[in-house]
Amino acid sequence: MTRVAVLYGGISAEREVSLNSGRQVIDALREAGFEVTPIVVEDDLASVIAALTPKPDAVFNALHGRFGEDGAIQGVLDLLNIPYTHSGVRASSIAMDKVAAKALFSAAGLPVAAGRTVGIDELEAGDPIPMPYVVKPVNEGSSVGVEIVKAGDNRRAAIARAWKFGREALVEEYIPGRELTVAVMGGEALAVTEILADAGVFYDYDSKYAAGGSRHVIPARVHPDVYARALDIAAAAHRALGCRGATRCDFRYDDTGGEPGRLVLLEINTQPGLTPTSLLPEQAAHMGMSFSRLCAWMVENAACRV
Q: Given 147, 179, 267, 282, which residue is catalytic?
């Protein structure tokens, strides 16, 4: 029997999401026959290392956000020589840095939104690019801190003054249309899901995790060429960053002028959520894979120093 330690919780803004993911994973791995040791991660690294002694056969990394999917805990596990799920240090750190990831996507010929990083003082002083635009933290996930500034919106200065994600922000053109996502497992894209956010105008934190916050249409009802291209781009993004295990790419699809429209890659998530409302498990189920089998697959493909 494989002994698996599940790391969940953490100290990022996505702690509650991680706790929820971790609980789901623990139950699923036990159902699949693994011996599971749950480890709730706090702000004491020494206690985490102690909980990993003696070494398990593998670590299921169910942490989200900073210090969990940005290469930090991955580096610790590499040093301990313990195989772990999802991507390694390099891919994790690049994917979490939206600016670095966009640079690699662009170099690989993948479609990304126009934009640039700006200082918060510059944002407070005036519009850095023409409206409408999106303001994002450079290194947060789950849409934490994302704001849309549209024509006639007077919130820009207030957003800058309340900013708590460092001294810079990523500002990108706002792309109208629809929200699409594609999960990738082992380099193979699974399906395209359209996300209909009921709680707001975009797929924000509440839409992702609140019960009834969004509806998912799988397979997405889009032009066949767009569907195929979304699959290809997601797999290419996974390769471009050197990801492993499972990832999920998020897109905007502008079909406001008719189909086929403009497909834009927003970001790649190297630690997709594993909650009851999460998209990766839903796509895996669509392909005939149960949640327990999905989690077992991740453990079977765990590695380190890769």
A: 267
